[in-house]
From TrEMBL, chain A:
Domain ER membrane protein complex subunit 1 C-terminal: 747-962
Predominant location category: endoplasmic reticulum
A single cellular component GO annotation: EMC complex
Family: Belongs to the EMC1 family.
Subunit description: Component of the ER membrane protein complex (EMC).
Lineage: Eukaryota, Metazoa, Ecdysozoa, Arthropoda, Hexapoda
Keywords: Endoplasmic reticulum, Glycoprotein, Membrane, Signal, Transmembrane, Transmembrane helix
Every EMC1 first beta-propeller domain range: 38-147, 185-400
Subcellular location per the Swiss-Prot or TrEMBL entry: Endoplasmic reticulum membrane
Organism encoding this protein: Frieseomelitta varia
The protein's name in its UniProt record: ER membrane protein complex subunit 1
Membrane-related topology note: Single-pass type I membrane protein
TrEMBL record, chain B:
A UniProt-annotated Pfam family: ECM10
Name of the molecule in the record: ER membrane protein complex subunit 10
Main location group: endoplasmic reticulum
Lineage: Eukaryota, Metazoa, Ecdysozoa, Arthropoda, Hexapoda
Organism: Frieseomelitta varia
Record keywords, A-Z: Endoplasmic reticulum, Membrane, Signal, Transmembrane, Transmembrane helix
Length: 963, 228
């Protein structure tokens, strides 16, 4: 023992070095463990992201900087710079959400500094660096005016309709580094306050007398004048006020001097875009309009312009040129000299392009170059797309409608041509032997031919579809069908995010009662060759809106159905007007003989229709067990209908239950049902004592969330679970002192919802889980009518350390994979939160550990490696769509924004992000770097060695036998 | 002919859980019941009786209703044969004077199977206003004549549970307890350094010995030290 100890002492310094190495080793091993999430070369491999800016509100060409670009400000509260040549986003800044970030004015680009005014009370003025998009200066206009009633700067709490209107009246003008805030004061004057746009110093306040301005006066800014239209149709007078000259008197121009005699009201005033102070007045119900040059002496141009022409004034060599844009099967821009109306054909253009639809010029610039004058026009279309036009040519177009997605479906791609042939060969239809044989020989000959062609490297015949748009082995390559609020449809493939097709449906709008939602149904998938896949769009007719506008009676939006092929973007039956208003709709789960699933439509007179008509018999055959429920947000009435008295010709509904969530106390905000394609794999949960707790899996269960209204019930949140077949309430829960935004996920036997806790000032997630108990009522099928026992409800709440924008659960084909919740955070991250973390059965004092249950912790930690979009922040998410892939382990995730508000102007800005997630790791896929050769060699070696040893063993046995 | 029968059923109170009632208000509630047995899409309602809930918080109630007449039972039987639904309309009057109409239904055969036994559940919201009235029956499904023509009605009043809140207090207590336990454990543990950490020291020693055995230089050094 002693010598060993001595040797140990001698080695002590070496031991220390070893320990150090050991430490490094441990750290190194630790690092390997940490980097299990995503490797750098995997970035963008399974995911893609597309950025959009939204519908253009203001735009300006930046001709001052070295790099030419276009500065845009959009309805989605975004300021961005677009590359002049390609239309790509150079930089993009997202301002505050909603009202607080609405951009009121943009200017100063020609002076080399960009100034924006955004928000309402207080308005925030920002000066931006043109090259990088960094904020150079920022200051609020927050001063209190002496007369509070006339001031727009009223705190938010007192912000009523009155002050909101006043903010609309405020005009902004940015010129030469000075910001002018123009506020009309009723029956008295116009107050013009000037600020230094960079420092925010107040330079001057003037009051220009304008006693004619009242609340009804229509005023537009044609700097340095304010033009107001006073009086109604026949004796209307246009009044012009010089804003920077306090001594001047308002000039007046009668309508007759502009239009001559015989013009009919109502008149409408508009300022013509461009650098010049010009206004346009439309008359005769917007049939024609004329323009007026505002100056010391106003000059009316005695020429009629068609009412729907969009105007812009651009200057070429100090000459003012009027551009009139009209649209008729293509955009046409007619240029003429402003004062003489002399046409200028060298500047006039006409362009026909798919992405131009009733465009208006938002910005235009016509520099003189060596070859002559070349004009560049930035066009914004009705469908929110933006295009740059240069000399009869469309340089680029951006599909900004994608910033307003209202419906999403992810659809499987069809099989390749070869697979389709095999499919036709073995189709299910009955045939006699001979024709079967002919068909078989024929298809085999065809296969042999293509095989020979491929061997001889002859080019195969071009098929009607793109070669890469076929189903892959694992069903990961799919088509995303998007419906935007502008009525435009897109087909985007999932691999690269490329837009495959786009389709414009004119004259539709979302259901006004359901916050502009458009419903998209997949009537037939791509599996039923030779029938084409079919999607149907349910929306309201937009044309009727105009009818109300003119006839003043309510004949709003009758329903329409629009069917199309989701893979190619071809319309199938086109636009079908239904002639009744849609209250509720539902996709039937049975198919007709040609594999088409009918749509059951419930109109406001409680009549049931089927689309297509041919599916009525099929619908009637299952009518006995078909139920429909409706929820009305305004009346708070929820009703259930049964179709059991239907005949095979006609579907008849009758009400079987009705309940009332009184609108006096509460307002329905969410009605959330389960995903109809969801499957639940395990029926119960194994407890620690090996007994089974059975899940309450009721496919008819719907979560209804209401928010309290009125003084006493304000800030309460009610959640009801309702069986919509039997009409039985299953459970109700109430949270006090909490408020929205509420996000609900309802899946399997659980509900997870998030809300903001007013008392503790934090976001919380609550989760409910429903169990039948230790005995299952019916092991094979669940019946809402036969089950009377109420389920056991487990509940728990957690603190969530971030604000939530949207939530959705993952879904897989067979439901074996554990569920995760995809949570979009306000900071731009998308978190993959395992459901296990919000399991209400997480024990506070774990005595006996159950399988897969983590002890309770009040706060849910956000792990950075669970952020699936790593550094690709996605802002203002309002919709997440999940879809199963062909692999059980993998779920496809598509994240987008959505117009959440009823008000069409209050749209949301969005990015598109697509990725795939594997909640239980990819247990059914080999790793990418799996060593196939090694396993082949090992197998081969084993095989050979077993064969050899067998031989040897038999030889040995033989030898022994001879002995 | 009419035998008037008043059936009084005393009421079950709900949720004995610690969360308890979240109902701030108490009041009474009156339900007038109409029912329809006709096998058509449009219901023909006839009066069934009434339910008075004297206190919504305790759920105590009085049920007053007539027995079913033979023609009605026959109608119910035909309805059950055609797999039809027995529909019940309830008009609720609250102590605040509001009148709300509810409709509920259940397959007629369950009523026959349970000999006209049913449960009427009244759901209230946080303001003690009724939001739903639903009827259910334990069944089983049958189309035979019931033993009695008298209703056996139970009335259950339900109100919303209080929502869960993050349980920080218990968690902090648990952490405290654990910390105390650890401190106590550390105080007790007065074994020697070697006794406590032998499981770490032994592998390290083996590692050192092995590395010195494989490294000839180290072996030499070890030898020299041995010679000293």
């Amino acid at each position: 023992m002693a010598p060993f100890v001595r040797s140990f002492r001698g080695n002590i310094h070496r031991f220390l070095i070893d320990v150090q190495i050991l430490q490094y080793l441990i750290i190194l091993v630790g690092l390997f463990n940490l980097s299990l999430c995503l490797y750098e070369d995997q970035v963008g491999k399974f995911d893609w992201k597309q950025n959009y800016v939204g519908k253009i509100k203001f735009a300006s060409f930046d001709t001052v900087s070295a790099a030419k670009k276009i500065i845009v400000a959009t309805e989605e509260n975004v300021i961005a710079a677009l590359n002049l040549k390609s239309g790509q986003i150079l930089w993009r800044r997202v301002l505050e959400k909603g009202y607080g970030g609405r951009i009121r004015a943009l200017g100063g680009v020609t002076d080399g500094d960009l100034v924006s005014v955004s928000g309402g009370v207080p308005a925030i003025v920002r000066a931006w660096d043109l090259a990088t998009g960094h904020i150079l200066h920022e200051w609020p206009i927050a001063e209190q005016n002496h007369d509070r009633r006339f001031s727009p700067f009223i705190s938010f709490s007192t912000l009523g309709l009155y002050s909101a209107n006043r903010i609309k009246d405020v005009k902004w003008h940015i010129k030469d580094g000075t910001l002018h805030h123009i506020l009309p004061i009723y029956n008295s004057a116009v107050e013009v306050t000037s600020y230094d746009s960079k420092t925010g110093d107040k330079l001057k306040t003037r009051r220009v007398s304008a006693p004619f301005i009242t609340q009804e006066t229509e005023c537009v800014l044609a700097a340095p004048y304010l033009a107001c239209l006073k009086g109604d149709s026949s004796l209307a007078v246009l009044l012009l006020v010089h804003l920077f000259d306090t001594h001047s008197q308002p000039q007046s121009v009668t309508i007759n001097t502009i239009f001559g005699a015989g013009a009919q009201g109502p008149y409408h005033l508009e300022s013509v875009l461009g650098e010049e102070p010009i206004i346009s007045i439309s008359a005769d119900n917007n049939q024609r309009k004329r323009i007026l040059l505002v100056g010391e002496v106003p000059v009316p141009i005695q020429r009629d312009i068609v009412g729907d022409a969009a105007l812009y004034v651009v200057s070429v060599d100090n000459e003012k040129i009027l551009l009139e844009t009209t649209y008729k099967n293509g955009a046409k821009i007619v240029a003429s000299e402003l004062l003489t109306s002399k046409p200028m054909p060298n500047i006039s253009t006409s362009v026909t392009h798919n992405s131009l639809l009733s465009p208006t010029i938002i910005a235009s610039v016509c520099p003189r170059q060596t070859k002559g004058v070349t004009c560049r026009h930035l066009l914004a279309s009705e469908d929110h797309s933006v295009a740059l036009l240069q000399h009869n040519k469309l340089i680029w177009a951006r599909e900004e409608a994608l910033a307003n997605i209202v419906a999403v479906e992810i659809i499987e791609l069809p099989m390749s041509d070869r697979d389709q042939e095999i499919e036709t060969e073995f189709d299910q239809k009955e045939r006699d032997v001979l024709s079967m044989m002919f068909r078989r020989v024929g298809s085999q000959l065809k296969q042999a031919k293509t095989f020979l062609q491929s061997i001889l490297s002859l080019t195969p015949q071009q098929s009607n579809q793109r070669m890469d748009l076929v189903r892959d082995k694992f069903g990961l390559h799919k088509m995303i069908v998007l419906v935007t609020s502008a009525g435009k449809l897109y087909g985007i493939e999932t691999r690269k995010g490329e837009i495959i097709w786009q389709l414009r449906v004119r004259g539709i709008r979302g259901f006004s009662k359901r916050s502009d939602a458009i419903i998209l149904y997949v009537q037939r998938g791509s599996r039923h060759f030779p029938y084409p896949p079919q999607c149907a769009l349910l929306a309201e007719d937009k044309v009727c809106i105009i009818i109300i506008y003119y006839h003043q009676f309510d004949q709003t939006g009758e329903g329409i159905v629009y069917t199309f092929n989701p893979i190619t973007g071809q319309p199938l039956d086109g636009l079908v007007k239904l002639g009744y208003r849609i209250k509720q709709s539902m996709l039937l789960h049975v198919t007709t003989d040609d594999f088409l699933r009918g749509i059951l439509i419930f109109d406001i007179r409680d009549k049931v229709h089927v689309y297509p008509k041919g599916a009525t018999a099929i619908a009637a055959s299952i009518a006995k067990n078909t139920y429909i429920f409706t929820a009305d947000q305004t009346t708070g009435i929820l009703s259930g209908y049964s179709l059991s008295y239907s005949t095979s010709q006609e579907l008849i509904s009758h009400k079987v239950w009705e309940l009332l969530l009184s609108p006096k106390n509460q307002r329905i905000t969410h009605v959330v049902s389960k995903n109809p394609i969801e499957r639940v794999h395990s029926q119960g949960r194994v407890l620690s004592d090996r007994s089974v707790l059975y899940k309450y899996i009721n496919p008819n269960l719907v979560t209804i969330v209401t928010e309290g209204v009125g003084h006493t019930h304000k800030n309460t949140l009610n959640l009801y679970l309702l069986d919509v077949v039997s009409g039985a309430m299953i459970f109700s829960i109430m949270h006090k002192r909490v408020r929205g935004p509420v996000h609900v996920v309802h899946s399997e036997n659980w509900i997870v919802y998030s809300y903001f806790n007013e008392k503790s000032r934090r976001t919380e997630i609550a989760s409910l889980e429903l169990y039948e108990g230790k005995i299952q009522s019916n092991t094979t099928v669940f019946s809402s009518l036969a089950t009377t026992k109420l389920p056991i409800v487990e509940r728990q709440a957690f603190i969530f350390p971030a604000a939530i924008e949207s939530m959705r659960e993952t879904i897989t084909e067979k439901g074996i994979t554990s569920k995760h919740i995809i949570v979009a955070l306000a900071n731009g991250g998308i978190l993959e939160l395992p459901w296990m973390m919000v399991d209400p059965r997480r024990p506070i004092n774990p005595e006996v550990r159950e399988e897969g249950v983590i002890p309770y912790m009040p706060e849910i930690p956000i792990h950075m490696d669970a952020i699936i979009n790593y550094n690709q922040s996605v802002f203002r998410v309002s919709g997440i769509h999940t879809s199963p892939s062909g692999l059980e382990s993998t779920c496809l995730v598509f994240v987008h924004g959505l117009e959440n508000y009823n008000c069409a102007c209050n749209t949301m800005f969005t990015d598109l992000f697509y990725t795939r997630v594997a909640p239980s790791k990819t247990f059914d896929v080999l790793k990418e770097d799996f060593d196939y050769y090694l396993i082949v060699i090992v197998l081969a070696a084993l095989l050979i060695s077993s064969y050899i040893t067998k031989k040897l063993a038999s030889q040995k046995a033989q030898k022994q036998a001879w002995k | 002919m009419y035998t008037i029968y008043i059936f009084i059923s005393l009421l079950v109170s709900v949720s004995s859980s610690a969360r308890g009632s979240e109902l701030d208000y108490d009041g009474w509630l009156q339900l007038r019941l109409w029912h329809a047995f006709n096998d058509e899409s449009e219901p023909i309602f006839v009066e069934r009786g009434n339910v008075t809930v004297s206190s919504v918080r305790s759920g105590a109630s009085v049920v007053g209703q007539n027995g079913l007449l033979q023609p009605h039972i026959n109608q119910l039987k035909t309805l059950a044969k055609h797999d039809g639904k027995y529909r019940l309309k309830a008009v609720a009057r609250t102590s605040l004077g509001n009148e709300i109409t509810f409709l509920t239904s259940l397959p007629a055969c369950y009523l026959l199977g349970s000999d006209l036994e049913d449960v009427i559940t009244i759901w209230l919201d946080s303001a003690a206003e009724p939001i739903a009235v639903s009827i259910s029956s334990p069944g089983p499904c049958s189309t035979e004549n019931p033993f009695t023509n008298m209703w056996t009605t139970n009335v259950v009043v339900k109100y919303p549970d209080g929502g869960p809140v993050p349980d920080t207090a218990t968690y902090i207590q648990k952490l405290e307890r654990e910390r105390e336990a650890r401190e106590r454990g550390e105080a007790k543990d007065n074994r020697s350094f070697l006794a406590r950490y032998w499981m770490y020291i032994v592998p390290a020693l083996i590692f050192v010995v092995l590395s010195s055995a494989t490294n000839p230089e180290a072996g030499g050094a070890g030898g020299s030290s041995q010679r000293q």
